[in-house]
User: What shape does this take?
Amino acid sequence: MLFTIIIRVKNALGLEVISLKVQKRVLDGMVYPLEETGDALDILERIFITRLKSFKIYEKEHGCPMNNLINEIGDHELAYQLALKQIIETWKSALIKLIERGKREHTIKPSVSSAAVAVYLISAFEGIRGIRKLYKDDTILEEYVSGLSLYLKQLQA
Assistant: This one.
């Protein structure tokens, strides 16, 4: 009985951390800024690059808290998995909305798959956050930024 109570408290605490810290961080840093007015591709590039450049050395050395949680416990705890997946889905939806706006405004090629681009951008960003943990300087981040700029130029209408 005590073990069950401990597990429930642990799960509730974990979900609270995901909600109050991780979700807020992603919403504030990566989702809400996507609602800005202006050229969709410029917004994408600015948000992703600005966010990377805003990280302090500790954040660069330890990676993304959400990505770390996904890799460490995301496949073991269903409640955590669902909470983390919801954050990704919210981010993905916001990206799709912006990309679709870019298509309507003729700044993004109409043939582009908005969902595919959204998943790619999230995956690449989360991936570079994890890879940066292995490096002692920001050279890898600079290479990512160059690659991101090249990729986004390919989407231009």
User: Anything to note?
Assistant: The chain has seven helices and no strands.
